[in-house]
UniProtKB/TrEMBL annotation:
Domain annotation Cation efflux protein cytoplasmic: ranges: 206-282
Identification of the protein by name: Cation diffusion facilitator family transporter
Topology of the protein relative to the lipid bilayer: Multi-pass membrane protein
Signal sequence extent: none
Entry's family note: Belongs to the cation diffusion facilitator (CDF) transporter (TC 2.A.4) family.
InterPro entries: Cation_efflux, Cation_efflux_CTD, Cation_efflux_CTD_sf, Cation_efflux_TM, Cation_efflux_TMD_sf, CDF_Transporter
UniProt KW Cell inner membrane keyword: no
Length: 294
């Protein structure tokens, strides 16, 4: 968890640097498209701050009031980031729509574009780093931040290409038009962030994880008869796994416990940080509902 907090702190530093570079590019060029790009970077700073706070909360151990820990705090960060992105999109549209009717005719200076390119390169390198760390730590907050930065990079590149086309063709309406397209892209990104994060808060099961668990149980449950009522949910970096395990009625508690230990070890080896709860049932008391034959 300390590694994810360090990554979130790094995100905040990078977001501030990129914000400064993008506003410098806007001041050097006066481009509305670059202004919209800079406005999104304000959201990056706010999102990085929210992710840092959420990860610090998520790192707290379980207590009497939170027996399952605080790991779901990461999802609140991702939801907040999505909402901020949507607000940024509407701000950009408010600036772009009037400019579509009266586009500026001045040429965007190349030095300002080079500053924007430098900001995009920095953003892209850090986005790749965040996504790699987020997948390794299975952190929703880091993954949300990484995906957002990656969409920001794509948007920035599109803006730069459009501005260069406007310089080459004299179609100055491309500047506000690109700003509007940036806003729509940001809306789409924000919607996906909110949807995925709300899904985590609502304990949506991952079919791929469920299938992996069934395969693990089939391979490591020697001595048991059946498994049913498998449930999984993700809470930040922790995957909670619950199921009923049916064993022969004559099996001793010690023997059944050995099977459970073997299953827990196999699941945790495959899914790092898994929290496994197994309810053991004798064969004659089994519910036989949704049964997987081992």
């Amino acid at each position: 968890m300390r590694g994810t907090i360090r990554m979130a702190l790094g995100s905040l530093v990078v977001a501030c640097l990129v914000l400064g570079l993008k506003f410098l590019a806007y001041r050097m060029t006066g481009s509305l498209a670059l202004y919209s790009d800079a406005l999104e970077s304000i959201i990056n700073v706010a999102a990085a701050s929210a992710a840092l706070v959420a990860l610090r909360i998520a790192a707290r151990p379980a207590d009497a009031n939170h027996p399952y820990g605080h790991t779901k705090a990461e999802y609140f960060s991702a939801v907040a980031e999505g909402v901020l992105i949507v607000l940024a999109a509407f701000t950009i549209l408010r600036e772009a729509i009037p400019a579509l009717q009266r586009p500026s005719t001045h040429l965007v200076p190349l030095p300002g574009l080079l500053v924007s390119v430098a900001a995009s390169v920095l953003n892209g390198l850090w986005a790749a780093n965040l996504l790699r760390a987020g997948r390794a730590a299975r952190s929703p907050a880091l993954l949300a931040d990484g995906r957002h930065l990656l969409s920001d990079v794509v948007t920035s590149l599109g803006v730069l290409v459009g501005i260069l086309l406007a310089r080459a063709t004299g179609w100055h309406v491309l500047d506000p038009l690109l700003a509007a397209l940036v806003a729509l892209n940001i809306l789409w990104s924000g919607w996906h962030l909110v949807r995925d994060s709300v899904g985590g808060l609502m304990d949506i099961a991952d079919p791929a994880t469920t299938q992996r668990l069934r395969e693990i149980m089939s391979q490591h449950a020697d001595g048991a008869l059946e498994m049913h009522d498998l449930r999984t949910r993700q809470a930040g970096q922790v995957t909670f796994v619950e199921f009923h395990l049916v064993v022969p009625g004559h099996m001793t508690v010690t023997e059944a416990h050995h099977i459970c230990d073997r299953l827990e070890d196999a699941i945790q080896a495959e899914i790092g940080g898994a929290n496994v709860t197994i309810h053991v049932e004798p064969q004659e008391k089994a519910k036989h509902h949704g049964v997987l034959v081992l």
